[in-house]
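Table S2 (text version). Query chain:
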Amino acid sequence: MELKKTKIIAIFLFILAVLVSGCSASNPKESKALIEKDKPEGSSSKAQDLDQKVLSFNLEGYTEQGQKKWEIAGESADVVLDEVNLKKIVAKVYNEETTLTLTADAGSYQKNSGDILLTKNIVATTTDGSRLTAESLKWSQKQEQITTQDALTLEKDDIKISGDNAIASTKLKQVELKENAKVEMKPSTVITCEGSLEFDYELGVAVFNDKVVITDERGEISADKITAYIDKDNKNVREIVAEGNVRIKRGENNTYSEKAVYNAVDGKITLVGAPKLVIYPEEGNIPDMFPK
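Corresponding structure-token output:
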């Protein structure tokens, strides 16, 4: 009798085990559907796609030789599909000559492309003295550049560059502004243009396009295109080449030509076109358009 009772219990446990196993092996899609059905109405699709949330995030990239190339860290990382949304971001890019440090209040890491999208109070600094600010920024690791369609400001060596729709190297030594470009140089020189500006700190060359105007307390030069050559040692303008519809204004006097070359060392302006003029300042009284 006791043996028979034991067999009955064993058969009951076996049947129960089979039933439990069958329930756990049910179709995962059906389980997901039941979960989504039980979600409160009005919940966002992005919230439904949320995979996980972690309190901190850190990611590093290395060269083929094993040297650290970049790193990014942040707080409150929400992992959503192919994005990792971050807060309080600190990123570093390690170049041979300098290190770029990027900080932002918010942003995201794109898993597929490896790009970093930054928003809110962005500040980028380099160990050789450059400082960039913007409200939005895309950092491309593959192309080693940062881009923005919003306003950007870059300051280095008493030179302040600002404008919209910008592309810059991660070293911040080359920058191109496609709209509303403006360069301010101490003590009083301002250069503006309606077209693009390409500024290369390493070569010491700045190229301005479309309705370019240079002003300071001594006068004004305007042209279709102006190329400024900057002394890499003292960071002062040493020569300016203005081309196309050139006008030079000093006081009430205006001079017109198709091309003008200004030498900041001796203060001489050479005008090429019709008419062709060379203006020599009086001895000992060189009007320096770009004072040190």
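Notes on Table S2: The radius of gyration is 32 Å. Residues 2-24 form the longest helix (23 residues).
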